[in-house]
Structure formats: structure tokens, C-alpha cells
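Hello again, I could really use a second opinion on something today. I've been staring at a protein lately and its backbone has me curious. Please have a think about how the structure follows from the sequence. I owe you a coffee for this, so here goes:
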Amino acid sequence: MKSKIIEKILFVLLFSALSLFVACGSSDENKDLTDSDADTSDTDITDSDSNDTTSDNSDSTDDSADTTQEVTDTTPDGADSTDDSDKPAGDTDTDTDTEPTNPTEPEPTDEPDPEFEQNAEGCTMIEVPKITMGGAYADEINGYLSPAMGGNAIDIIKILLMGDIKEGTYELGKGLNETYMNCEQCVLVWIDAELGAAKEYYFQTHGTLTITEVKDVDGINRTAGRIKNLILKQAETNEYMSDFTLIPSGECIAAEIVEWDTTNTPNNSGD
């Protein structure tokens, strides 16, 4: 009987201990759940910080947009710089109305000719009105001195174009043009000319002859041009007038400019 009482007491103690153990376990579990809730709350707080970060990023994006706007604002200045770089250095005028010079037309030089000034010293200066009538042939152009040097007969200046008649500038008194027999551009002066002869003859020794225009008129090459710084010295000819030889002690004559234009002369005009 006594042993049964002891067994009941032990059973009661064991049951109490088990109940207490179960009660403690439930309490810990609830505590863990409470901690989990606390952690979830902490996570919510972290999410709030994340929102703050997003706001900061948005501010950064706005700053980037501002920077982009500044770059966009500077683009027109860059375009202006590009346009300016297309201009030549020092060029501030875009006017292109100036007409180009014709490269095929020789331009007369206005520079002083020291050789002319030196060699013309002591020569008789002559004047020749502009020649506007050509002869019967393209290779002969006749003009007249004014005033005349000689007596009552006329004084004639003859320009003979023996070579290829084309635009260009040619030296007189040099190369082939040094002698009458070989000259391709020849200049002569006849003093007191009559009946196909003259009292005195002069032949070129210095000057430049420029043909500025060649024009076909009825199958003849008529020309326009000028002679600058012309010097001629007295010469003698043979009975056939096929050559002219300078006289060493002869006189000289000179003209600063002689101009002609026979482009309006018709064919078969005669001398």
C-alpha cells in the first residue's frame, strides 16, 4: 500500500515537471516569435533607408540632367567655332564678287625700265597716235609719227608680225629679234617715206611687244597690242630692202609706248 502511495506521488511530480517543461517551451517559442517580429520591424526600417537612397539617386539624376543641359547649351558655340575654322586665316570678308583675272591675257608691266632710261638718253623721243587700221596683210601694221621728224613727206612706223601670231609678250632687239633677217616681231621707222622708200631707216634695239588679242577678220588674224620702252637705231638697207644693218655711229629714236588695234579692220583694206 505504501509503495502505491509513493508511485502516485512520483507520478504527480513527474506530471508537474512535464507540465512545467511544456510551459517553458511555449514561452521561449513566443519569445522567438517576438524577436522575429522585431527583426521584421528592423527590416522595415532598412527599407525606409533604402527609400532615402533612392531619393538621393534621384537628386544625382537631376544633377546629371543639369550637366547635360549645360553641354547642350555649349553646342551652338562649338558650331560657330567650326564655321569660323572653315575661313582662311585673316579672312573676314566672304564677298566673292571680285572677277578673276584672265590668265591667258598678258598684263603690261608698269615697272621702270632702267635699261630703257639709260639707252634712250640722247635719243629723239617720238609719239605715235594709236594705230587702228591694218594693212592688206595680217603681218604688217602701219602707223604715223606725230609730229613728223623729217621734211614734208610722212614718217611711218611699221610693225611686222612674221612669226606665229598669238597672244604673248616678246622681247625686241634680243634673240631672233636682234636682226631683221631673223626677226619674228619687227619694228621699223621710215623717215620721209615715199614711193616705197625713205630718206632714213631705224630698226629696233630694245623694248617689249605684247599682243593682247588675236581676232579672225575675214580669214585674216587682226591683232591688238602695245610696245613699251621702244628704242630704234639708225640703219641702212640694201637695194632690195631685204635687210637692215645698224649704223654704228647712227642716231637713235625712242618711244615710251606704242599701241595698236586692228581688230576692226576689214579684209583687203589696203595700206
About this structure: The chain is about 35% helix and 30% strand.
